[in-house]
Write a structure and sequence with these properties.
The protein is mainly α. It has four helices and no strands. It has helices at 2-7, 21-33, 44-57, 63-71. The radius of gyration is 11 Å and the shape is globular. The two termini are 16 Å apart.
Length: 74
């Protein structure tokens, strides 16, 4: 979820798999932008929405994109 948020322009901090304050804030911002329940929580539904959003924008999360996302954190 962190990598996918970063690729869509949301700053989560490090991609470390830890649900911290920055990740929560990024999830809330994404949820608000896409008119979803704004609870700031990661979920399977959120992950599916992120995947669909990236697919609609033509963003594929392959090794190169993930590497880019890892370098783009705050």
């Amino acid at each position: 979820i962190q990598a996918r948020l970063i690729l869509l322009g949301y700053k989560t901090g490090q991609i470390d798999g830890i649900y911290g304050k920055k990740t929560e804030q990024s999830i809330r911002a994404y949820q608000a932008d896409y008119h979803l329940l704004t609870d700031g929580r990661p979920s399977p539904e959120l992950l599916n929405h992120l995947k669909n959003t990236q697919q609609a924008r033509g963003i594929e999360i392959g090794d190169a994109k993930l590497s880019y996302a890892r370098q783009s954190f705050d």
